[in-house]
């Protein structure tokens, strides 16, 4: 299977650097809407057969233009949601951001038993995310697109891709509507095909002033 993991478009929390993993969460900014609108043109030739989103509003709004263009009905999988922020939810101060990032970084380095303070453990995150991916695989399609979240995509993809170091994703940016492309399966293993860290619409859809903590290198 070819799996396209697409980060959602920009949200107000991304602009302000706020840690926001609450469900259902906010929608998109005007720029986020433009980023979402660029997806159909950018992905028209990828052969996408099914489209999946998380239980968070921002992924569903991001997927809407692509779904309309492809004539697909997005399937909501709760396991694709962002890594829980726990005690750091709604915060933007340096200590809180570093706590969130260091916890996620630890999971990427292999310490999955550690827990986000007030939130889920690495083991719990990987179990629910991989469970969602297995549901995607169960459809039997050759190419699937998943609209998910910055920290979740980077943490899971870098851990399962056999041709990258476990911490690869922590050293790469993933801007809003950036895409991580994998090939393979849960049973046989995944291989990184491409890491497109910039928005699919090009430089004009990049907000260099945003304080987004989950899109930058950890």
From TrEMBL:
SMART domains: PGAM (SM00855). InterPro entries: His_Pase_superF_clade-1, His_PPase_superfam, PG/BPGM_mutase_AS, PGM_Phosphatase. It comes from the Bacteria. Pfam families: His_Phos_1. It comes from Curtobacterium citreum. PANTHER family: BROAD-SPECIFICITY PHOSPHATASE YOR283W-RELATED, PE-PGRS FAMILY PROTEIN PE_PGRS11. This is Histidine phosphatase family protein.
């Amino acid at each position: 299977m070819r799996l396209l993991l697409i980060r959602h478009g920009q949200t107000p929390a991304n602009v302000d650097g706020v840690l926001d993993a609450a469900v259902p969460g906010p929608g998109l900014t005007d720029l986020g809407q433009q980023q979402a609108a660029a997806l159909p043109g950018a992905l028209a030739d990828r052969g996408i057969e099914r489209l999946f989103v998380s239980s968070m509003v921002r992924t569903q709004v991001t997927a809407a233009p692509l779904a309309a263009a492809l004539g697909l009905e997005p399937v909501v999988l709760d396991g694709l949601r962002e890594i829980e922020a726990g005690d750091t939810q709604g915060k933007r101060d340096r200590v809180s951001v570093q706590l969130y990032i260091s916890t996620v970084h630890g999971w990427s380095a292999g310490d999955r038993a550690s827990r986000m303070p007030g939130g889920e453990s690495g083991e719990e995150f990987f179990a629910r995310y991989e469970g969602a991916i297995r549901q995607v695989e169960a459809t039997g399609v050759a190419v699937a697109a998943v609209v998910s979240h910055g920290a979740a995509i980077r943490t899971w993809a870098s851990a399962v891709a056999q041709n990258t170091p476990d911490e690869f994703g922590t050293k790469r940016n993933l801007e809003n509507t950036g895409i991580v492309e994998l090939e393979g399966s849960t049973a046989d293993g995944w291989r990184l095909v491409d890491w497109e860290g910039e928005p699919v619409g090009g430089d004009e859809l990049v907000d260099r002033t945003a304080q987004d903590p989950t899109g930058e290198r950890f």
